[in-house]
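Format is sequence with structure; example below:
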Amino acid sequence: MFRPWAQAIGSVAEIGVVTPPGREHRIAEPPFQHVEPIADAVAAELLALDRRVTLFGHSAGALVALEVARRMREDRIDHLIVAASTPPDAPETNYALLSDAELVAALRAWGGTPGEVLDDPAMVELFLPGLRADLAVAHSCRTTRANHPVDVPITALAGASDRFATPEQAAGWSRFTTAPFALVTVNGGHFFPITNPSEVVAHVVATFAASKVAPGGRSRAANDQGPA
C-alpha cells in the first residue's frame, strides 16, 4: 500500500514501512498475537532515530500507531494520521475468533482482497493465519489503555463510502488526543489509500508541511500496516 507513495512524499520525508512477522517477506516468522511486542519494537526503533516522526496507520494499523505513540515521547512525534479506522473504544467484533469460512466472508465484504485469491484454498491457507494474528493484535488494542489520550495532533482520514469506519465513527478519534484534531473525508471506501492514493498523499504531504520539523533532518513518516 505505502511503497508507491515514496515518489510523491520522498522530497518531503523519509518513509519507513512496518511489516510485522507473518506478513509479506516475513510470512515464515511466527506472527504476534498482541499489540505490545510490535508497538514496543517500533517505538524503540523510532526513538533511536535522531529526528521527529509522523505516524500513519490504516485500519487496524491506526490502532497500532496509537500504541506506538503512547510509548514515545510526545516531543518526538509531529502528528498521528489514522485512516479508515474506528477509535479504540468503539465496540467491534473480535474477528480473530471467526471460523475460516466466516473470515473469508468478512474479507469479501471489506473488499481489497482479489476474489481469485479468496477462491483459492491454497492461498487462503497461506495467508489466513497471519491475518488472524493481525486481527488479534487489533482486538488487543481495544482492551489496552483504551481511554488514554496522547498529547499529539491527530488527523483522521475517513472514506465517504466506508461502511466499516464511517466519517461519523472516525470523528471519535478526537477523544484520544489532547492536542488539535481534524477529520478529513475523502472519496472511496475502506481501502481508499489504495483506490484514491493521490488525494490521501496530498493530505499527508499537507500535514508534513504544516508540522514543525525538528533541526537535524527531515521528518520520518512511519507507516503501520494493518490487517485490512
